[in-house]
């Protein structure tokens, strides 16, 4: 299940024109990807650093392209946003994720699944109603559902975003401020929006053992989060040394290759059983 094929797209983009052509072709393909059953849900475990328990996962979309192989969302989410197709992709993810949550609940598994929302999703007037309706249909416990939003989802229309987030919170789901520290006004958004969890961006986590500034930013973000009564997640934890350092600093949750790369959601519970046995 190759994470590695994600850069296939650059292969046929030799010049600017070729790049535009390939973008257009890719857009056309993406429109059909749903019907052609080429979209996949991968997920990456989230682990509680104090107990060592797997407490949930983040859902990450993948596109199994017929010729390019497994395409990373970094290559097509932007395209989907520009074309408005993201609304359909999000709906597809929501449905799939809710059906998995229903299955997990049926199997007695109480884990959270976090779904990424795009800026466009927050501007869609029906998003909260749709989510509420689907959660009722699939009989999903709100405690099992998390939404990850980046600052970019909030800048376009902060009032509308606040309205959507407030209504989502009223359903009982958790909200995560994703890629924390990379935007223009992270602190201000933390103050103005009802986020439960801060997710420190991997650009601070990855170099934190070599770079004193990154280390200081990570340390103070964990402290800040805790002072504000928020949980803190670190993403991009690739080594045991980084893991230990974060643990010493009281970081609540971690995600990263040191635990697992994103894997097909079908394999998640099996992976977890093996991992816990080891
Ligand atoms: P993100 O939400 O910040 O997700 C984290 C990304 O970091 C994922 O890339 C994940 O595979 C990668 N990652 C996880 N652990 C490590 C690690 O230890 N080291 C390193 N270097 N990377 C790690 P991915 O899956 O390629 O997704 C990229 C971005 O695409 C996501 O960033 C998110 O913004 C977007 N995305 C993915 N799925 C969806 C989706 O369903 N909807 C929306 N709107 N966006 C999505
Ligand atoms: Ca995310
Ligand atoms: Ca992130
Ligand atoms: Ca990111």
TrEMBL record:
Positions of the EAL domain: 23-276
Extract the GO molecular function terms from the UniProt entry: cyclic-guanylate-specific phosphodiesterase activity
Q: Which residue spans traverse the membrane?
A: none
Q: Which domain of life is it from?
A: Bacteria
Write the protein's name: GGDEF domain-containing protein
According to its UniProt entry, this protein's organism is Telluria aromaticivorans
Question: Could you read off the lineage of the organism from its UniProt record?
Answer: Bacteria, Pseudomonadati, Pseudomonadota, Betaproteobacteria, Burkholderiales
Full-protein residues shown here are: 366 to 643 of 646
